[in-house]
């Protein structure tokens, strides 16, 4: 991907080219790998590369979760994986799922890590520390910054559903800030979980056509129809609907990548039925 193509442009192109709103999350757990990969020093790279190569024409983006690589000292394999995606499947953006959130000087280092070391096209981040903690990521005008808004985990309501005045919920305030004041370069997006379709619809009504990253279908139980109908834009796009475990571990043997492709294809087609 060249620096003249922004994350949002690449995402929009992938929505159209692959007729897909599916994001495949790359959360490698070596204990779940097929036996022929276990014990290999490059197992994480080989596993994820196989998944990527078997599904790249079915997705709008890939989303490696950095903790699953770092926990196994496999950051070098993450670098190699993102380089492979860009080289073999140009135009498919890569979101580094890191959920960073820290003060400006530290955020500058996280931005270097994500965008210069790993060459990711976008990063997930927390809005909790305010605009100045997000600004360092916005200094990269071709990159995406995807802020947590209404997450799919049960504890998300502990803070995100708090009333911040006049009946406005905290997640609604985040959506308004990100879509307006923070989105000065047009590169922001939001994370809204599939387990709360009513909140997806509310966020969509606030942010217009801003892209939404929606985890929570598949293993987390989010409903595809409700998610798509609540979150799609008038043009039938606007979503990156993420599935990880259900696709990654669809197969147990040497045919695991083909099994993953079948689940990815079925998921993409199920999403498209409601666009």
TrEMBL record:
Gene3D superfamilies: Aldolase class I (3.20.20.70)
GO biological process, one term: 'de novo' UMP biosynthetic process
Residue positions of the active site: 99 (proton donor)
Domain Orotidine 5'-phosphate decarboxylase as annotated: residue spans: 21-260
EC number: 4.1.1.23
Positions of transmembrane segments: none
Molecular function, one GO term: orotidine-5'-phosphate decarboxylase activity
Enzyme class: lyase
Family from the record: Belongs to the OMP decarboxylase family. Type 2 subfamily.
Name of this chain's protein: Orotidine 5'-phosphate decarboxylase
């Amino acid at each position: 991907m060249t620096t003249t193509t922004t994350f949002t442009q690449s995402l929009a192109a992938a929505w159209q080219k692959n007729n897909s709103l599916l994001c495949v999350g790359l959360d490698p757990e070596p204990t779940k790998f097929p036996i022929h990969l276990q014990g290999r020093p490059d197992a994480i790279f080989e596993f994820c590369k196989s998944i990527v190569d078997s599904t790249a024409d079915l997705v709008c983006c890939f989303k490696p979760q950095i903790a699953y690589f770092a926990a196994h000292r496999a950051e070098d394999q993450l670098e190699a994986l993102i380089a492979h995606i860009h080289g073999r499947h140009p135009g498919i953006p890569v979101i580094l799922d890191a959920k960073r959130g820290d003060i400006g000087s530290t955020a500058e280092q996280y931005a270097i890590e994500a965008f210069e070391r790993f060459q990711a096209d976008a990063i997930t981040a927390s809005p909790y520390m305010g605009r100045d903690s997000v600004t360092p990521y916005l200094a990269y005008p071709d990159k995406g910054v995807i802020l947590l808004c209404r997450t799919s985990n049960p504890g998300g309501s502990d803070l995100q559903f708090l009333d911040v005045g006049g009946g406005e919920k905290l997640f609604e305030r985040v959506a308004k800030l990100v879509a307006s004041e923070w989105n000065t370069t047009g590169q922001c997006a939001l994370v809204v979980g599939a387990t709360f379709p009513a909140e997806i619809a509310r966020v969509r009504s606030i942010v217009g056509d801003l892209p939404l990253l929606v985890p929570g279908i598949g293993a987390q139980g989010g409903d595809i129809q409700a998610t798509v109908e609540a979150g799609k834009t008038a043009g039938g796009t606007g979503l990156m609907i993420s599935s990880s475990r259900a696709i990654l571990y669809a197969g147990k043997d040497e045919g695991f990548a083909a099994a993953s492709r079948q689940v990815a294809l079925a998921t993409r087609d199920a999403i498209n039925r409601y666009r």
